[in-house]
Amino acid sequence: MLIRRPSDILPSEINSETEFNARRDWLKQAAGLGLIAGLPALTACDAEAQGAKLMGVKPNATYAIPAGEKLNKFDELKSYCNFYEFGTDKTDPPALAKSLKTRPWTVSVEGEVLKPQVFDIDSLYKLAPLEERIYRFRCVEAWSMVIPWVGFPLSELIKQVQPKGNAKYVEFVTLADKAQMPGLRAGVLDWPYTEGLRMDEAMHPLTLLTLGAFGEMLPNQNGAPIRMIVPWKYGFKGGKSIVKIRFVEKEPRTAWVKAGPSEYGFYSNVNPTVDHARWSQASERRLGEFSKRKTLMFNGYGDQVASMYAGMDLKKFF
Ligand SMILES: Nc1nc2c(c(=O)[nH]1)N[C@H]1C(S)=C(S)[C@@H](COP(=O)(O)O)O[C@H]1N2
Ligand SMILES: [Mo]
Q1: Is 241 in the pocket of ligand 1 (CB under 6 A)?
Q2: Of 20, 129, 201, 202, whose CA is between 20 and 30 Å from 209?
Q3: SS3 for the chain, per residue?
Q4: 201-212, pLDDT tens digit by residue?
Q5: Is the pLDDT of residue 23 over 90?
Q6: Residues in the 5 Å CB sphere of ion ligand 2
Q7: In this structure, which residue's CA is closest to atom 14 in ligand 1?
Q8: Mutation test residue for ligand 1: of 145, 240, 264, the one with most atoms within 8 Å of CB
Q9: Is 174 in the pocket of ligand 1 (CB under 6 A)?
Q10: Stretch 180-193: mean pLDDT, rounded?
Q11: Lowest pLDDT segment from 32-46, 113-127, 131-145, 302-316
């Protein structure tokens, strides 16, 4: 059998997909022939990290592109980022997160649950069917995007660990590794970056445990290998590079609440009528567009989520 190594392939044949497939095929064939000792039969997920095509992703028709919207470009997602562990400029994470090691990686799910479990990242790709969902994404800094995320509802993971009756909130703890993350030297946040959701928010069908975007595994700068996307809340509720999911009784103090309690609330629902302490939230700039658009209540997902906040003063619980 002829085995073409990636290095045998002519530059003219290469695009990221053929390159990836060739490498995977080579690894498979080589493993099959026993050329790589101890290497099990590989799947895309096991063999590759960011940039690898995710297999078996089904577009969820309920979350197809919202009416009147168009998708942002993958490059816009990859090149304009917030990931303070890699620096506070939007272009720092694309440059500095390249070397983030996303394998091996585990996510410990613990706290007030009957079945605490440490999940290997590669087992998480198989926990539930991978869906593509096109969501609006609105940053508290008043820019926004429309992105095809890939993942599955967080509720699927929650069901596995069986929360106890006193689990009222879920806390997300993300990687804080000084050796890999130059931004940790700056005291902008109390590391590790943590986030939190109320239990009903965590169980809501819109809440996506996110493993990819644009059909590929998450780019490092966008929170590889695993992050949260909560589309009716400001982007910062979506913690990147999660290592721990903890079920707790009391509302967790999130990294942003600790950094500025008058500027960032626990709920952080997208709300055009509640301004940030230093700027208006009434409008936003969609990346790629020149003029601003009006920000929608709950980022346009009000019909699905507003009932969770019935009777709450959203100016107080911002
Ligand atoms: N670990 C971690 N997660 C994070 C952040 C961060 O600095 N560190 N920034 C948050 C903010 S403020 C936003 S707007 C989104 C940005 O996600 P994106 O860069 O993939 O668009 O990630 C959120 N998740
Ligand atoms: Mo943000």
Answers
A1: yes
A2: 20
A3: CCCCCHHHCCHHHCCHHHHHHHHHHHHHHHHHCCCCCCCCCCCHHHHCCCCCECCCCEECHHHCCCCCCCCCCHHHHHHCCCCHHHCCCCCHHHHHHHHCCCCCCEEEEEECECCCEEEEHHHHCCCCCCEEEEEEEECCCCEEEEEEEEEEEHHHHHHHHCECCCCCEEEEEECCCCCCCHHHHCCCCCCCCEEEEEHHHHHCCCCEEEEEECCEECCHHHCCCCEEECCCECHHHCCCCEEEEEEECCCCCCHHHHHCCCCCCCCCECCCCCCECCECCCEEEECCCCCCEECCHHHHCHHHHHHHHCCCCCCCCC
A4: 999 999 999 999
A5: no
A6: 82, 139-140, 235-236
A7: 235
A8: 240
A9: yes
A10: 97
A11: 32-46
User: Mean pLDDT across the stretch 133-161?
Assistant: 98
Q: For the chain, what is the mean pLDDT?
A: 89
Q: Tell me the ligand closest to 194's alpha carbon.
A: 1
pLDDT digit string, tens, across residues 81-112: 999 999 999 999 999 999 999 999 999 999 99
Region 282-298: mean pLDDT is 97
